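DM from R.C. (forwarded with permission)

"hey, sorry to bug you on a friday — could you get me a structure for this? deadline for the figure draft is monday and I only need the backbone to look sensible"
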Amino acid sequence: MDATFVLSLRPRLCEFLSRFDDCFASRPTRKAFAGYITGQLSELPRKSMEPMADAAGVHPRSLQQLMSLYVWDEDQLRDRLQQYVAQQHPSEHSVGIVDETSVVKKGRHTAGVQRQHCGAVGKQENCVVTVHLGYTTPDFRTLIDGELFLPEESWHQDRPRCRAAGIPDDVVYRPKWMIALEQLDRARRNGLRLRWLTFDEGYGGKPPFLRALDARGQDYVAEIPSSFRVWTHEPRVVRREHATHRRPGRPRRLPRLAKQTLPQCEVRWALRVSSVVRAAAWVVFHTSDGEKGPMLWEVKRISVWLSDAEGLPTREHQLLVVRRLPDRTEVKYFLSGASSSTSTEELLLVAFSRWKIERTFEDAKTELGLADFEMRKWKCVRRHLIASCVSHAFLATVRREEEKKGRPN
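My reply, with the result:
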């Protein structure tokens, strides 16, 4: 957006931000927050505090104190944003996308920083990782939540270090999938109805996460690792012992898997060893058009059963084995808890919609300064993540309105 267009958005921005007025304790705090959002929407190549303050016409100290000292409720702000998205952008085809992003940081004092895999540079690096929930419809996409990941050994187990970074004692290590589950629950409480949820194998490879989604009745399409284990035939479960089979001593646990039940199979071997998978036909689907032409995949779909926390089979799930054409060297595995009547085409469209959050992260970093924060304290970083969601939601709303008017954005 050029400077003239940004200036023309001020009345719309003021109206948009007025929805959040009661999240702030005072008028100066509301003014400082409006300045922060204006700075994020500006044309600055890097969105650090002083240039943002100059672009918004406010004192730099007011933005610094907004993140650290001013009284405002960032949780209420996030909830209000989600309620706004639920009211203004509902869709029968909505997809929630769970993903994480990382920001390279020097030193060891920024909350959550440690040497870990950094997707931003594709290798191990000193960085912080944040977990996000995105919301997409056919004509709208935005971030609706963001949370800082707190590593277990280097942070959770070092409470003095946590206190020095402003991390409250009740903020503890949680696996990333558990953070994502909390984000989903918050969004649903705030009225957002996600027809689908999708995520990569970092989350799809966590059976407790999948079981929790099934328990909530949330349909999903998960990419799973090739080592993920399933049954390709429904196992038989013994629920009571026949009288003639009873023996003295400790009774056997019930219910239990019947004798001679075949073990679960890793999905990467299912193509070779499972008669069910071998018998399924390959079907070709066109998912999208890329720079090098149409994206074609051939797909096998079968019913599979997972194991619950007790090692017993869950209800029926759908497994998609997907190979990229024409060379067939790129193989992906997707799992869905949706009804078997759901079309394969719909499952594939959801599975391959994750590019939307990757583009959303790119927009948030290049246009809004999501990765440019210079704060170290836990509360400051958290407030920045939520403020960035507000900025992106406004930007996405404007983009949608301009596209409807047929104007370039």
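R.C.: lifesaver. The radius of gyration is 24 Å.
me: no worries. The first strand starts at residue 95 and ends at 104.
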